[in-house]
Design goal:
With 303 residues, this protein is α/β, with parallel strands linked by helices. The chain contains 11 helices and 11 strands.
């Protein structure tokens, strides 16, 4: 008896993404071994023609105008709500991702593992180099390591949240969370964990979702045989977005831990950003201001 192909719905959240969306959709056209039931392009009030671009492909595309730029999580929630019929899993995907022809099939096979609720691929930069995307759960020691050791902390057991050890890149396994640019989430896990938290706007919403999934017994599994090229990088050059990322990281830790631990985490992160600001890094200066002056924090996204 032939095993039916996994039914995959795709949700792509766009915001002024017309220049990269076509490449993403083109890579979805070539997927083998799965049945794409819907490709929802949830557009957060783009000023370009992102939704028009979405209509020009041989895919079951559902253009969805969210109506406002409420953030990544809001786009995902709206996109999932718009998926018609039944599906086995939802692929959450950034518009600047490019999939190999077997990517979705490999990720779908990974979801067959016991308790696996989220499957994530190996991410690559445009030049083919490895893009670190796997993380351990945030702790005070890891916050200290990343504040004062930087990316080196990822090579030291227990001292880094972002895993940078090159020996990890080709080893499948379970992790606490991963970059939200590409995640295949089983329908069962999605129903059990519930909606993504829209209060984060951007950054840490994938951390929150993955950690909540872990709280409920679901495993996030890394499958390096499934590869995706991820262009990305805006956070690295935009001080305002970097500041939002830092603030959200602290907010998430505080929500999940005691007031004492949350206060200590805040001070460690603040010390690390202050040190980087003293070294002349503009992104760190913006983060320090956002941490110390809540009134200066980004509370709404551009429209």
């Amino acid at each position: 008896m032939t095993t039916p192909e996994p039914r995959i719905a795709v949700v792509i959240v766009t915001y002024n993404s017309a220049d990269v969306l076509a490449g993403c959709l083109r890579s979805l056209e070539g997927q083998r071994g799965v049945r794409l039931t819907a490709v929802v392009v949830a557009d957060n009030a783009s000023r370009d023609d992102s939704l028009t671009v979405a209509k020009g492909f041989d895919l079951p595309v559902i253009p969805l105008a969210v109506g406002r730029n409420a953030g990544f999580a809001a786009g995902i929630n709206a996109g999932v709500a718009a998926v018609p019929g039944e599906y086995d899993a939802v692929m959450v995907l950034n518009p600047d991702c490019r999939l190999r022809p077997d990517t979705l099939a490999r990720l779908a096979a990974t979801l067959q593992r016991s308790t696996c609720g989220i499957a994530v691929p190996k991410l690559l930069n445009e030049d083919g180099s490895f893009q670190p995307s796997l993380r351990y759960a945030p702790t005070l020691r890891r916050a200290f390591g990343e504040a004062f050791l930087g990316r080196v902390a990822g090579r030291l057991p227990g001292f880094g949240e972002l895993i940078t050890d090159p020996r990890e890149r080709d080893l499948p396994g379970a992790y606490s969370w991963a970059t939200g640019a590409a995640m295949l989430i089983s329908a069962a896990a999605l129903r059990d964990v519930g909606p993504w938290d829209e209060s984060f706007l951007l950054y840490s919403e994938e951390t929150d979702f993955a950690l909540r999934a872990g709280d409920r017994g679901w495993t996030l599994w890394y499958e390096p045989a499934a590869e995706i090229t991820h262009i990305g990088g805006e956070q690295q050059i935009n001080p305002t977005l970097n500041a939002l990322s830092v603030v959200n990281k602290v907010t998430l830790y505080r929500r999940r831990n005691s007031a004492l631990a949350g206060g200590a985490y805040f001070l460690i992160v603040l010390a690390g950003e202050t040190l980087r600001a003293a070294l002349g890094r503009q992104r760190a200066r913006a983060a320090v201001v956002a941490l110390l002056r809540p009134s200066r924090r980004l509370r709404a996204l551009a429209t």
